Structure formats: structure tokens, C-alpha cells
Amino acid sequence: MKKVTLVAGMLLASLCSGVSFADDALNSAIKSDFRQAKNVSRDTYRHPAETLSFFGINPKQTVVELWPGNGWYTEILAPYLSAQGQYIAASFETSPATDTPGNKYRANAGTKFETWMTANAATFGKAKVITLDPPNKLALGDDGSADLVLTFRNLHNWANSDQLENVFTASYKVLKDGGVFGVVEHRANKGMNLSSGYMEQDEIIALAQKVGFTLEATSEVNANPKDTKDYAKGVWTLPPSFAMGDTDKEKYQAIGESDRMTLKFVKKSR
């Protein structure tokens, strides 16, 4: 009886928080030995099972991840979707038209990511890489072809280049009716400067609604009340970046990674 009551209580708590229990395949992908130890160590901050379950992921979906960077979530998503679904990484432009420091960084990271994807083709199955380089390359696939579009801690980059609305619109177009746009981003206090790397949740919601999305739910699964957001080098002061080097490193380690909004938007017929 106690065991049944405990399970029922856990289920009730999950439903109230808006987070579903991860399916067995997702749990297996998260616990897989394929994942790098340095990435697994960040699960305590990034909560992959709870976050992906909140977005309603299932292994038969077509999922587009925007700017996957070094592949933190790719290590989970690509194997998880390999048998029945489709993982699409909308990664950096590897041959930029201009040779700026930002373009160099993204080109190098994008090339490294594609090489890594190719080397692990046996694990990733039919996963593929496309280019997202706003405003020049914004197509994420055929209109209405994706079940889920995900972005993790990228919005400030597009906002800094005045491309955030373009990316939101591209995400809306590629999604099927009823498809989900899942957003995780560093959450600003009211009035913070964009250069801090944090963004205001209300403004993100308003922009998503402007391009046609409906806000389905919010989650505090990636919240961090210890994050005071008042650092000289912005969000990059905190782990994993530690922009201050060894200066007060233990202090920032104790705070942990940033306070983050987790938003679930849905594309609905107008």
C-alpha cells in the first residue's frame, strides 16, 4: 500500500509541475555510456529527462535542434530518435561569407560538429545536419514537416544580431499543426541589458505569440534562485564558462549554472 501511495504521489507531483515521466528509451539515452562524462556532470543543472519530457518528446518524432553547439543534447537526441524518428541539427555555417571573429568561431565549431556526427553515424542513424545562418539561411525543412523544434540557450545570440524574430518565424513554418517549439534560455531580471546574456521571459513570450505561437506551458525545472545575475562578465561568469577564470571560482561554482526559463509553445491552426 505504501508503495502504491508513493507512486501515486509522484505522478500527481509530476502532473502538477507540467513535467511527465521520461519514457524508457529516453532514460536509456540519458544514461548511455555514449555520453561524455563532462556532459553527464551537467545533468544536475540541465535536467534533460524533465526538460525533454515537458516538451512532449517521443521517439517517433522529427525533431529539429537549433544551433546544437558542441552536441550536448545531440548525444541524447540523436540516439533516442535513431530507430523510429528523425534528428535534424540546424548547425552553424561552416563557410561564412565574411571572416569576422564570430563567424570564425561558428565555422570552426560547425565543422567540428559535422565531423563528430559523421564519425558516429552508426549510433546516430539517419540523423542529418543542415545550416541555420540567419538572415541568409533560415529554412529548417519543408513547411509543416517537424514535430518539435528545440533551442537551448541560444536566443541571446540571435537577439544580438537582430535575427530572433526571423528564427522564431522559421521555427513556426517548419512545424506541423500542433507541433511544439521548446525554448530554454537564460532568464533576465526586468531591465537587464542584452549584453549580459540574459533575456526577459515576457519579451520572449510576446515575440513567439507575434509570429503565431500559443504559449502552452512554462516550467521552473531549470530555474536557479541562487543566480543573482549581477556579474561583471554576465552569464558567462557562471559555470561552465567561468569567464572570471579562477577569481571567485568557488563562489560561482556554488551558485551553479544560470537561472533559465523553460517555455513550451504550440503551433495551432488560425
- Overall domain count: 1
Number of helices: 12
The parts where pLDDT drops under 50 for at least 5 residues are 1-20
Q: How are strands sequenced across the largest beta sheet?
A: 3-2-1-4-5-7-6
What is the CATH topology?
A: Rossmann fold
Would you tell me the overall average pLDDT? Answer: 92
Quick structural summary:
Helices cover 39% and strands 18% of the residues.
What does this structure look like?
The protein is an alpha/beta fold and 270 residues long. It has a single domain, classed as Rossmann fold. It is built from twelve helices and seven strands. It has helices spanning 2-17, 24-30, 37-40, 43-46, 48-54, 74-81, 101-119, 121-124, 155-160, 164-174, 201-211, 249-255; strands at residues 62-66, 86-91, 128-131, 146-152, 175-186, 213-219, 260-267. The protein has a seven-stranded mixed sheet with strand order 3-2-1-4-5-7-6, sandwiched between helices. Strand 1 (62-66), helix 6 (74-81) and strand 2 (86-91) form a beta-alpha-beta unit. Helix 2 crosses helix 6. The longest helix is centred in the middle third of the chain and has 19 residues, at 101-119. The radius of gyration is 18 Å and the shape is globular. The termini are far apart. Mean pLDDT is 92; it is low at 1-20.
Write the layout of secondary structure elements.
Elements: H1 2-17, H2 24-30, H3 37-40, H4 43-46, H5 48-54, E1 62-66, H6 74-81, E2 86-91, H7 101-119, H8 121-124, E3 128-131, E4 146-152, H9 155-160, H10 164-174, E5 175-186, H11 201-211, E6 213-219, H12 249-255, E7 260-267
Parallel strand pairs: 1-2, 1-4, 2-3, 4-5
Antiparallel strand pairs: 5-7, 6-7
